[in-house]
Design brief:
Blueprint (H helix, E strand, L loop, with lengths): L2 H4 L2 H38 L6 H17 L4 H25 L4
Organism: Paenochrobactrum gallinarii
EC number: 5.4.99.5
InterPro entries: Chorismate_II_sf, Chorismate_mutase-related, CM_bact, CM_dom_sf, CM_II_prokaryot
Length: 102
């Protein structure tokens, strides 16, 4: 039997929505990283540091508030943001290290 025959319709519908949300998240992350790549290039060209701790603090506070307002665990939101920021900084450091090699 196929999954459609043994799984309740409501569960299938919820899973379909989850799959759509996952796809949207991937597309949004790709767009975010496209923008942060451009930021990394600008920072490298201007000789700016890869990390901006003050902005990061403001972003954490802003996203924790958004999470709270959205009934999402603010600690989870902060961990998620920190994971993304760590990756962005890694990309910026790589860009800065390779700046001017083209």
């Amino acid at each position: 039997m196929s999954e459609a025959n043994t799984t309740p319709a409501e569960l299938l519908a919820l899973r379909g929505s989850i799959d759509n949300i996952d796809a949207a998240l991937i597309h949004m992350l790709a767009e975010r990283f496209r923008c942060t790549k451009a930021v990394g290039i600008l920072k490298a060209e201007q000789g700016l540091a890869a990390a901006d701790p003050e902005r990061e603090k403001r972003q954490v506070a802003r996203l924790r508030a958004l999470a709270q307002d959205s009934n999402l665990d603010p600690d989870f939101a902060e961990k998620f943001l920190n994971f993304i920021v760590k990756e962005v900084i890694r990309h910026h450091e790589h860009t800065a290290a390779n700046h001017g090699e083209n």
